[in-house]
Design brief:
Mean pLDDT: 92
Number of domains: 1
Structural class: alpha/beta
Helix content: 25-40%
Number of helices: 5
CATH superfamily: Vaccinia Virus protein VP39
Shape: globular
Radius of gyration: 15 Å
Strand content: 25-35%
Length: 184
């Protein structure tokens, strides 16, 4: 489980990733990974030594902290990539090389949803998927962003369509989050 101070459970990263179907040997990117790597480390375990998880963030200090933790924990399949994912073509990962892209609690911090999804799609192999997890539009807790900053599922679906992606599935990703699976 992804935890916050006080021990509150937010997201079961491993359970969500297993449901999504992360397989051994996969090449995955986590857009806006953050320094704690809540989804990076479980993904690294699931893809195994023959797979790769690209931890993508715009902030170099975040990536340095994550790389340091990866080294100290013995992970050799985590590669950090500094990028502005709102700019299509900016992410230095080979085009059409990924089996999946994770976009977890990121869209609410941005406005260029379609561009972020276009950048993800650019990096995906044909017939692969994107996992989007975001805060539910209403309800929530003191640690959630205000409802005015949250992104409704319909908005993500519209941005996905604008990016040339297909909506596959919506699911509850926890008490406070929804999940969407999009395909290329």
């Amino acid at each position: 489980m992804v935890m916050i101070s006080g021990g509150t459970n937010l997201l079961d990263a491993t359970g969500i990733l297993e449901r999504f179907g992360i397989a051994q040997g996969s090449m995955i990117a986590d857009f806006g990974c953050g320094g704690a790597g809540h989804f990076v480390f479980p993904t690294a375990r699931l893809v195994g030594e023959k797979g790769v998880i690209y931890a993508v963030d715009i902030l170099e200090p975040v990536l340095s902290a994550l790389a340091s933790k990866a080294r100290s924990d013995g992970f050799t399949n985590i590669k950090t990539v500094q990028s502005n994912i709102e700019v299509v073509g900016a992410t230095k990962i080979p085009e059409a090389s990924l089996d999946a892209v994770l976009i977890i609690n990121l869209l609410f911090q941005n406005t260029k949803y379609a561009d972020i999804l276009r950048e993800a799609a650019r990096l995906l192999k044909p017939q692969t998927r994107i996992l989007v997890i975001e805060w539910k539009p209403s309800g929530g807790t003191v640690f959630a962003p205000p409802p005015s900053q949250r992104v409704a599922p319909i908005t993500v679906k519209q941005a996905a369509q604008a990016a040339g992606l297909e909506f596959q599935e919506e699911f509850a990703a926890g008490v406070y989050h929804y999940g969407l699976i999009l395909s290329k």
